[in-house]
Write a structure and sequence with these properties.
- By secondary structure, the protein is α/β, with parallel strands linked by helices.
- It has two domains: about 120 residues, Aspartate Aminotransferase, domain 1, CATH 3.90.1150; about 200 residues, Aspartate Aminotransferase, domain 2 (3-Layer(aba) Sandwich), CATH 3.40.640.10.
- It is built from 14 helices and twelve strands.
- A seven-stranded mixed β-sheet has the order 2-8-7-6-5-3-4, with helices on both faces. A three-stranded antiparallel β-sheet has the order 9-12-11. It has a two-stranded parallel sheet with strand order 1-10.
- The protein is globular, with a radius of gyration of 22 Å.
């Protein structure tokens, strides 16, 4: 590891150099690993988390545009000042009902929800047990609380139990669907463990809200476990296709949170037209069973076909399909081979993955036609052939 000089300005320059010179110029040959070429109209774009394709729904856009045109000046301030009967409270009540919770809190993002939640429920004396693949925002919450984060092996409740036995009860944290590889949490076993061990349970439903469970109410509801999970969080920048986050919690916790969580207190709330978007999106998503069914079929088919062709798609099962692509230079080759055939995924590298364990992540969506799936298979097969030829 490079030894950084003591002077802060020098130190910053060295860190910037490490990125610009060592990583971009040398390792990536001057070509940003996460970008590549611009996608065109015939290309298959599988980067977005708009799993049910609602972002371009005319009725939703119309409702949001109308709300923007009709709105009086929004209060640009922290949401702790929000009055009763506001659109924020309507949305929170609608989400609490949808997800079978007592109360819901709308936050500025999934990141703010996770950081604010952990900061307000943990402390330096409370150990936090996180699945090693839990989202980065949950790990940031550990730092914000000044707590000790203890990683357990991915999807391994037995390992979590052994660690709890060693360090004592605390807060147990999992995602429902893991954002890197699309693997599904063994939620029933985790819920049992939390109850047995006397832990508070936090479940991030970002990639299952809208896509899993009745009406898309999430994995906990699907498994009849909603009342056994203490806190559910979600990013609304996935299936809900907007910019916000969510916490489902008890009534007693909600008011405490608003005066305790730094992101809730010290950062401004959403604007009126954003609440309108989510209210409309919720009505649409509740009724979108056909899209959910199609998404499930597509997820299974694409994963199976990529595996058949010879891609390493890891251990996932859900709508995020991650191709393991190795080191950063190897990933650049894979990205180029796929883009060369008109397939665009999202490249994941450190700090989102361990160094040299990069991924090209394909997020499938319900709008893919049979024709698109045929194209995807043919193009991915051609990309792999090109890649192998290049290597041989
Ligand atoms: C599992 C998970 N939690 C939280 C977040 C953060 O959400 P947001 O983009 O709304 O801040 C993300 C987004 O990447 C996520 O995948």
């Amino acid at each position: 590891m490079a030894v950084l000089s003591a002077c802060p300005k020098e130190q910053l320059r060295e860190r910037e150099d490490a990125f610009h010179i060592q990583r971009v110029e040398r390792l990536w040959n001057g070509d940003h690993l996460l970008r590549g070429r611009e996608p065109g109209t015939d290309d298959l774009q599988l980067m977005s988390n708009d799993y049910l394709c609602i972002q371009n729904e005319p009725a939703l856009r119309q409702a949001q545009a109308q709300a923007l045109l009709n709105s009086k000046a929004d209060l640009l301030m922290s949401s702790i000042f929000t009055m009763d009967g506001s659109p924020m409270q309507q949305l929170e009540a609608a989400f609490a009902d949808y997800m079978e919770g007592e109360e819901a809190i709308v936050c500025q993002s999934g990141f703010a929800a996770n950081v604010g939640l952990l900061q307000s429920i943990a402390s330096p004396s409370v150990p936090i047990y996180l699945d090693m693949n839990a989202h980065a925002s949950l790990w940031e919450g550990v730092k914000a609380a000044g707590a000790r984060g203890i990683a357990f092996r991915h999807n391994n409740p037995d390992h979590a139990e052994r660690l709890i036995g060693r360090y004592g009860p605390g807060i147990l944290v999992v995602d429902t669907v893991y954002s890197t590889d699309g693997s599904l949490c063994p939620l029933a076993a985790i819920v049992d463990l939390a109850a047995r061990a006397g832990c508070i349970l936090v479940v991030d439903e970002s990639h299952s809200l809208g896509t899993h469970g009745p009406g898309g109410a999430g994995l906990a509801v699907a498994l009849g476990l909603a009342d056994r999970v203490h806190f559910r969080t979600a990013s609304l920048a996935k299936t809900f296709a907007g910019r916000a986050g969510l916490i489902v919690c008890s009534r007693r916790f909600k008011e405490y949170f608003r005066m305790e969580s730094n992101p809730a207190i010290f950062s401004s709330g959403l604007l009126e037209h954003e609440y309108v978007w989510f209210l409309e999106a919720l009505a649409l998503i509740r009724k979108a069973d056909e899209r959910r069914k199609r998404l499930r079929e597509i997820s299974e088919m694409v994963r199976w076909r990529l595996d058949e062709i010879g891609y390493d798609v890891g251990g996932g099962t859900e709508q995020i399909i991650a191709i393991e692509s190795g080191t950063e230079p190897e990933t650049q080759h894979m990205r180029d081979a796929l883009q060369g055939e008109g397939v665009f995924g999202a490249v994941f590298c450190a700090p989102a993955t361990p160094r040299n364990h990069c991924l090209v992540r394909l997020s499938v969506h319900s709008g893919l036609t049979d024709d698109d799936l045929e194209k995807l298979t043919t193009r991915c097969a051609a990309a792999l052939r090109a890649l192998r030829n290049e290597m041989s």
